[in-house]
Write a structure and sequence with these properties.
Order of helices and strands: HEEEHHEEHHHHHHHH
Distance between the termini: 64 Å
Helix content: 40-55%
Strand content: 15-25%
Largest sheet: 5 strands, antiparallel
Shape: globular
Structural class: alpha+beta
Number of helices: 11
Radius of gyration: 22 Å
Number of strands: 5
Length: 237
């Protein structure tokens, strides 16, 4: 066991001085990655228990960059810097604590290119949809709408961008709510349902959602449903 750990230490230390090193910093972690090596440092004591997961995520940074560059070139657009996505498996994972750093190595095996491009496209589309400049929204939505793994989240966004009076009919016609994956999509759909007094649907959908908006809508829908009269309730059964 000593030999693999020693090799990890020596190669990783040299690797992170390279010009090819990718760096990323959030409120909780500082991450560096190069090839099959990565290391992470917790910037808050509360994040220390999540170091292994952070190191696994850091290992995917090079592949994430490749997915971003490929999609941006294909669509001839600039993607939001804060948006990233990858569906991948990591094999041969090893890690070692080196002072304040956790260093790790592993082989990242991405899912099919179309899955990763669609996953990135829908996440970028939701962010662009919330901004004033929506120039790239159509191109991103087109990618997401044409892939089965992201179609429902794209339908939710298309409805979200439509005039309010058209949203419910659009969702009724095209949405498969059970296939929604993004909390922002669930919250948007739930908001439309809530406005149209579909409280049971709101309650069911927001149970699988962790965002503050979803929790607020769940509580509001539960309150409204509990206050329905017997005549109102008859329409639900």
């Amino acid at each position: 066991m000593l030999a693999p750990i020693l090799a990890l230490s020596l190669v990783a230390s040299a690797t992170f001085d390279s010009e090819q090193t990718i760096e990323q910093q959030t409120a909780f972690f500082k991450s560096q990655a190069n090839g099959q090596y990565a290391r992470v440092m917790a910037l808050k004591s509360s994040a220390k228990n999540a170091l292994e997961q952070a190191c696994r995520n850091a290992l995917t940074l090079p592949e994430r960059r490749t997915i971003r560059n490929t999609l941006a070139k294909k669509l001839n657009i600039t993607l939001p810097e804060s948006v990233s996505f990858i569906d991948a498996e990591i094999t041969d994972y090893e890690q070692e604590k080196q002072q304040e750093w956790l260093t790790c190595t592993g082989v990242v095996i991405p899912a099919a290119q179309d899955i990763n491009e669609a996953g990135l496209a829908i996440r970028a589309a939701w962010q662009v949809g919330s901004q004033k400049d929506k120039a790239n929204l159509r191109a991103l939505l087109q990618v997401a709408l044409n892939h089965p793994t992201t179609m429902s989240d794209a339908v939710a966004l298309a409805a979200d961008q439509s005039p309010e009076e058209q949203r419910l009919s659009y969702l009724d016609k095209y949405l498969k709510a059970s296939e929604l994956k993004l909390d922002e999509a669930r919250a948007s759909v739930a908001q439309t349902w809530f406005v149209n007094k579909r409280y049971k649907q709101v309650i069911s959908l927001t149970r699988r959602c962790e965002s503050i908006d979803c929790k607020r809508l769940n509580l509001a829908a539960q309150t409204e449903f509990d206050n329905l009269s017997a005549d109102d309730l008859s329409s639900y059964f």
